[in-house]
Design a protein that fits this description.
With 287 residues, the chain is α/β, with parallel strands linked by helices. It is built from 14 helices and 10 strands. Helices cover 40% and strands 15% of the residues.
Length: 287
């Protein structure tokens, strides 16, 4: 059967990965010095992706500047404010103009949602869901999508190759299968998103026990589990509202399709980026 590959790129994750991987890379533009780390990271990604993947579509999914999760929980990702200040986004539009050169590239976002939600939704589109899907991101929330055997995670990509990570990756990293990962992580929290554990210092082995039996937060365990499990484990139901909040913040959302927008930035020729930002790696690169 004909199998087209769909590569979903977590735009925000790649942006920050590029900034820190190439931190300090700059170019003189006019009379000022501009940070070009993010642009360089996207240039390197495109060169590697076009070399490693044949017959593919590259789908970049952006975070909306308005985030419904942030509206629900003010502490959500509050620890990243400093990072945003250190990571200039002035080249965001330039990056998208660069990507617009490539016919296989598509850029999507949805007002109020994160790129993860856009990826989750587009993976379920009829003509995509039965084909091979690769997600380029290091965001643990996206491991939920590994329940689909045709979906793989790619964390690193270079000219020499890439590594595909399936459901076994979730087991290796967290000790639990992707279908039970959401409940487990909602209990232990996620420091990268500033989501606190439901109960401080709650043992991961106890969270694994709960996630093995329940597929969502509950206000009361079954009588059998209340009798068999230790009081410390059972006590988590006393914090049901916090548990449910964590669950909702981490859960990938199915966005109504009519709320997803395809962005159509105007392209700028590769020569522009090569001269304007001293991107020598673009020399002799034909599209």
């Amino acid at each position: 059967m004909y199998d087209k590959k769909y590569i979903f790129i977590d735009y925000s994750w790649l942006l920050h990965k590029s900034f820190y991987a190439h931190k300090g890379l700059t170019a003189i533009v006019g009379d000022r010095r501009v940070d070009t780390a993010t642009l360089f990271g996207f240039v390197q990604f495109m060169k590697s992706a076009r070399k490693r993947f044949d017959n593919c579509e590259l789908i970049f999914c952006l975070d909306s500047p308005h985030n419904y999760r942030k509206e629900r929980c003010a502490e959500y990702k509050a620890n990243r404010i400093k990072d945003r200040a250190q990571n200039p986004l002035e080249l965001n539009l330039e990056i998208q103009s660069f990507l617009a050169n490539f016919p296989e590239v598509h850029i999507f976002d949805a007002y109020g949602y994160e790129g993860d939600d856009v990826i989750n939704t587009l993976c379920k589109v009829a003509h995509i869901k039965n084909n091979s899907k690769y997600i380029f991101s290091g965001d643990n929330d996206l491991l939920q999508l590994l329940v689909d055997p045709k979906t793989k995670i790619i964390k690193s990509l270079s000219d020499s190759g890439y590594e595909e990570l399936g459901p076994e990756y979730a087991v290796e990293k967290f000790g639990i299968t992707p279908d039970k990962l959401l409940v487990f992580r909602s209990i232990i929290g996620d420091a990268s998103d500033n989501i606190k554990p439901v109960i401080p210092r709650f043992l991961k082995k106890n969270a694994l026990i709960i996630a093995g039996e329940y597929d969502r937060p509950v206000g009361q365990f079954t009588a059998k589990h209340q009798m068999e499990w230790k009081p410390k484990v059972v006590s988590i139901t006393e914090h049901y509202e916090k548990w449910q909040m964590n669950y909702d913040l981490m859960k990938l959302v199915d966005i109504p399709f009519d709320q997803i927008t395809r962005k159509m930035p105007a392209s700028k020729p590769l020569n522009y980026f090569m001269t304007q930002y001293q991107m020598g790696s673009l020399k002799d690169w034909a599209i």
